[in-house]
Every structure is written in C-alpha cells, then in structure tokens.
Amino acid sequence: MSNDQTRNSAPKKSVWESIIIHKFSKPVVLIFLLFTSLFISFLIARQGMVIGVLILVAITALPLVYAAIAYPKFGIILFIIASFFINYVSRFLPDDTPIGLVMDALTYILILGFFIKQKNEKRWDYFKDPISYFILAWLVYNLLEVINPSASSVLAWIYTVRTVAVLMLLYYVFVFQIRSKDFIKLLFKALLILELLGAISAFQQENIGFFPFESKWLNADPLRVSLLFISGHMRKFGIFSDPVVFAYNMVAASLLCLSLLFTNIHIYKKAILICLMCFFLMVMFYSGTRASYVLIPAAIGLLAILKFNKRILVFVLAGGFVLAFLIKVPTSNPSLVRFQTAFNPSKDASFNVRAENQRRIKPYILSHPIGGGLGSVGIWGQRFAPNSYLAKFPPDSGYVRVAVEMGWVGLLLFCVFNFIILQRGIYYYYIIKDPELKTYCMAMVLIIFALDIGNYPQQAFVQYPTNILFYLAMAIINVTIRLDKQKNQVQAQLG
User: Fold this and answer.
1) What is the DSSP string of 96-150?
2) Tell me, what's the pLDDT at 1?
3) In whole angstroms, what is the distance from residue 152 CA to residue 169 CA?
4) Is the N or the C terminus of the chain less surrounded, counting Cβ atoms within 10 Å?
5) Maximum Cα–Cα distance for the chain, whole Å?
6) Across all residues in the chain, what is the average pLDDT?
C-alpha cells in the first residue's frame, strides 16, 4: 500500500483533536497565551474597562474583517444583518454614539474585497449594461455637488455623500459577488428571516408592550413621541429606525413572498409563504404609515400586467373589490380609518401640509438648477447650516429632497435612472428563459416599483435597511439575466 493510500485510510482527527488538543497543548502556545492574558489584565487594571472592551472588539472584529474580505458571500450576509439591527442596537447606547461608523466600515470592507478579487478576475463585462452606467452617472453627479456654489456647508456634503453616493458602490459589489441561484436563494431566506424578526418585534410592541429600553429610548425625545403618537395610538416600528422604514420593509417582504409563490416549490413552502405574507401585512398596519397601504395594490397591478393571464386577472379583480369595500365601509377603527385616508389624500391634513410645502419650495427649485447642495436639508443641514433657508424645510418626499438638494437637473437624472431600472427589469423578465430566474427578476421589479412609488410621500431610500434592499434588488435584476445567458450558452455548447 502506498503512503498516500495509508494517509487516506487513516482515521481523520476531529477539529477538537487537531486544533484544541494538538496545537494549543504545545508549551510555546501555552506560554504565549499566559503572558497575553497577564498583559491584558494589566492593561485593564491600569486603564479601566474601556481598554478591555476595545480589546474584545478587536478580537472579534479582526476575524470578521478577514472573513468578509476573503469570503464575500459571508461579508454580504453580515452586512445585510448589520443593516437590519444597526438602529435596534443604537437604542441600547447613548444618543451620541457613532454606531453608523460600523456600517461605513463594513461598506468599505466589501468594496475593498471587490477590488481585490476584481484585480485577479477582471470581470468588468459584468457591468456593461444601462443600470451600471446610470449608477455611475448618478454617483459622479453626487460627487460634483461638492462644488455647488449654492451649498451652505461642505461638511453637510461629506456626511451625506458617505451614506448616499458611497453606498451606491455596493450595487457593483452585489453584481460581481452574486454568481448563482443558490446564493440568491440564500439571500432571500436571510431577508425573510430578518423581516420576520422585525415583524415579530412590532407585534410584541403592539400586543405586549415596549421593552423597558425601547420605552426609555422613545421617551428620551419629546419630539419623537409627538411624531409617533397619533389619534391615541403609538405607531410601531419594530427593530427599524421609524414606522415608515418598518412599513416599507413589510411591503417588500410581502411582495417577495407573493412572487416566490410562482416558483416550483413544495406546497408546504407555499403555505409558509402565504402565512408570512399575511403576517407581514397585518403588522404593517401597526406602523400607521398610510403611504405603505397604497404600495401593495399598485405592485399587484404591475404583477397582473407582467403575468397577464386569466387566473391572475381574476385574483386582481377579487382583490380590487375587497380593497374598494375596505375604502368605503363605515368604521370607527383608527387603523382602518387611517387606511381609508391613504386612498383619499385630500382629506388628510398631513398630505395637505406636504402639498403646501412643495408649492412653497417650487420657485427655489426652478431657480437653482443644481440645487442647494447635498445634505442641505434634514439633520445635516440643521447641524452644519442651522440658519440657512433649506435647513428649516421639511422635505418629506424623497423626490422633493432630490429636487431641493440637487436641483431639477438632479431630479431629472434621478427619475430617468429609476425609469431605466424598471425598463431593464421588465425587459429582462420577458427575455429570461429560466422560470426560476424569471420569477426572481419579477420579484425585484415589484419591490423597486413599490419603493419608487413610496418615495413620493416619504423618503424611501435614505435609511437602513431599505437603501440596501434597493441596491440589492437592482443587482439581482442584473444577475438574473447574466445567469440566464450563461445557462443558455452552456446548453448551446452541449447540444
């Protein structure tokens, strides 16, 4: 018997035997660990618990950083998980804790991993499509805003561009690193699990009550309470930053469940998806976000167009009758009343206030083609230019914010950009041959379509994790057509 055969036939050692017993039992390792523990104990005794926490963070963070760069799939999943829980974790911490730097660091790590891998593979052909070109154009426009003569603060631009423009680079990371249907399935499973945790959190807040740390965070700011307490009912937000982000995520999760029903899966999995969809829609009402109520019917309308057949049309018509009944039925239920006002905005006081604000800001937009500068409205405008005209303006709508900060030129580019995404997604849906990839593409189109509509009454693309979901959906649209072409090429070569 050869040496190789002898080695192969020998019993393999377990991880515990090969690493813990063998490696860690060596005297050199034991001496090193002893002196390291004594040194750390000495530092904690001299400097306090802060240095201990920093060492613990370093011990945890360094392997995660390496894993995120060396194993991009792990890095993407880690980033998505962090985007869901970043706001929830912040409620345990003081208000001035710069926890957003965690997301910045993860973003730069993923981008670094992308360039390292791209240096070896040089697969720039992945990005030869209209969506990639328009993202690049939009990114350049954001960067050029730093020289906007109307901008009142460069610091506001710096703080805004890192969460808007730099985050857009993740689209290229997703397109490059997502290379199989299996990974897309894994991403969908991860998203549904995370959305379910967010939904359960909102269910707990509504039916059990807020946890003590949630109540403490909620009551720490009287303005926060006044914005969330409406008509005798506290709007729920789950693990997310606010009710709007929570509601839009429930819409996206519901549409993902609805789309996956069209895949060839076991009946029990379809039953699970239906139950999840119903649960997501139920807890969505706890948010009190009227804008979200319109998104589901709008997305189902697009679904009826894409899947044009008799069964879908019957389903949509039946849903339309139920929707009409809910809109018109007399009720004293505050959640249902709020739902009804979403389809009759002229009777909604907050909608009228937004309309008045938009009318008031329109002359400014028309007279400033490239806007008042990135970050000129919202918290960064109030922080770095508190006495400016735009710092006092409540943007509300995502499109209005773009128009104010980046001008009507920026708004035009942004609208064309979103049109191209939907146009490409619908076009790819019709030419993709693989039924599974076709359904995945459709799901992403529906989610982006819903978020595009939701960006008018609210700001849909500025908060975690909705902004990540938007770029991920764009990337998967591109990935589905690429995977389908690769499959067709392989089949053509085989026969």
Assistant:
1) T--THHHHHHHHHHHHHHHHHHHHHH--GGGG-SHHHHHHHHHHHHHHHGGG-TT
2) 46
3) 26
4) C
5) 88
6) 84
Question: pTM (2 decimals)?
Answer: 0.86
For 295, phi then psi, to 5°, come to -70, -40
How is the chain split into domains, by residue range? 53-494
Q: Which residues of the chain have pLDDT under 70?
A: 1-26, 28-30, 32-33, 47-50, 52-54, 57, 95-97, 331-349, 495
What are the residues whose beta carbons fall under 8 Å from the beta carbon of 240, sequence distance 6 or more?
Answer: 84, 87, 88, 198, 246, 249, 463, 465
In the prediction, which pLDDT does 7 show? 45
Helix (H) or strand (E) holding 400: helix 398-431
**Three-point CA angle 464, 161, 171, nearest 5°:** 60
* Distant-in-sequence, close-in-space partners of 433: CB < 8 Å, separation ≥ 6: 484, 487, 488
Is the CA virtual torsion 229, 230, 235, 241 positive or negative? negative
Helix (H, G, I), strand (E, B) or coil at 165: helix
Residue 492 tokens, joined:
């053509």
Nearest residue to 374 via CA among 178, 92, 174, 155: 155
Q: How far apart are CA 477 and CA 190, in angstroms?
A: 18
